[in-house]
Amino acid sequence: MINPVPKAELHLHIEGTLEPELALSLAARNGLALPYASADELRAAYEFADLRSFLNLYYRLMEVLRTEDDFADLADAYLERAAAQGVRHAEIFFDPQAHTGRGVPLEAVLGGLGRALTGAAGRHGVTTRLILCFLRDEPVSSALATFEAARPWFGTLITGVGLDSAEVGHPPAAFRAVYDLARDAGLHLVAHAGEEGPPEYVTEALDVLGVQRIDHGIRSMEDPALVARLVREQVPLTVCPLSNVRLRCVERLADHPLPAMLEAGLLVTVNSDDPSYFGGYAGDNFDAVRRELGLGEAELRRLAANSFRASFLPQEDKDAYLKEVAAHDFG
Ligand SMILES: Nc1ncnc2[nH]cnc12
Ligand SMILES: [Zn+2]
């Protein structure tokens, strides 16, 4: 990746950037035993049958994250890798319940993430936003309690809420009350929908939760009326091609619906989701779709431009980045 196109990453779980080497070193630092002797052994466990099988390892491995320093080191490592792949702006998810549920204080999580993100523009040339995700396979009462506990960081560190974890059987509508509160608090609203779940979940996320972006959304393609609506309303979809293959939502990258989504006029973006687990960061995803889906410069430029258009950046910043994308030399 000699000269990666400038891009915004809009679908990135910070816990999904935990590289095997860092997991092992944090385990050692915190005096914890992991059932893997080496980074290679750990990497060999990254074989997933579906979203649930991935989540089992994702939640297990993130138990090495204990202290404020752990979260700062995790985010700093991500930002360095992202910057090297052309990421200029990152809107980053985190899963507070996955940490507080095992006794890690929210202050440690947000203290560490806050430290890394606050310095990111200076250290890595990457601006950031932080999006608090609710776990949809946990009770709504837990989401509400998490939301209230995170209030001190609203508007400063936390600027949006999202919805993630096991999708099928957990439709968005159950989370209406907490999304209403988030809207009243002035936060941005996004939700995972249509990754493994049906197109109806996408419609529900839009109509019941009032989200501004859909994370994944690939199964929208099964419903032409929904596609027409997403095109008409230019609802951004944060698509994650390598993730979709590794979680077997799509059999092979060559079968990915991204070209059809672009063709339909959808506002699609390309993102990495959980790059440590799925084989690559944002630039790797751009390279993969270029190679495997035969996308040309015009499409890559459009994907990069879409990433800034779909971001929560102020319009003047979007305009500046769009100029950079238009002038980018793909070589
Ligand atoms: N791809 C994904 N889908 C749902 N929840 C997630 N949490 C982390 N990665 C996820
Ligand atoms: Zn995701």
Automatic annotation (TrEMBL):
Cofactor annotation remark: Binds 1 zinc ion per subunit.
Gene Ontology molecular function, alphabetical: hydrolase activity
InterPro entries according to UniProt: A_deaminase_dom (IPR001365), ADE (IPR028892), Ado/ade_deaminase (IPR006330), Metal_Hydrolase (IPR032466)
E.C. number: 3.5.4.2
Known function: Catalyzes the hydrolytic deamination of adenine to hypoxanthine. Plays an important role in the purine salvage pathway and in nitrogen catabolism.
Protein name: Adenine deaminase
Residues bound to substrate: D274
Main EC class the enzyme belongs to: hydrolase
Chemical reaction(s) catalysed: adenine + H2O + H(+) = hypoxanthine + NH4(+)
Record: active site: E195
